[in-house]
Amino acid sequence: MGLCEPHEVQPCKVLHMGQSNPRHKYRLGGEWIESSPEEKDLGVSVDEKLNMMQQHVLVDHKANCIMGCIQITRVSRLREMVLSFYSAPVRPHLEYCVQLWSPQHKKNMDMLE
């Protein structure tokens, strides 16, 4: 049984990309599939204009939360210790699928730095 069998139409959505997209309606097993302005796939949020701003905000928020926890609980202020605490839990969130959602605008780059 696949993910989008006729009795499982709920998890299926259509993401219309591009300005000249005619935005056709689609059916699966006799039921209409709803369209969505934004979807998350492989942990990366993308909208119909291929704008990654929401992804930048999510990544920035998650990294700042982890850094806040590290700052509250850290025992040492040695540079080596801080770098190891940073590189283990924070960097993977910042680098996950970065090839896809890499910031294009200076304000997004500043946010993530």
From TrEMBL:
Quote the protein name from its UniProt record: Rna-directed dna polymerase from mobile element jockey-like
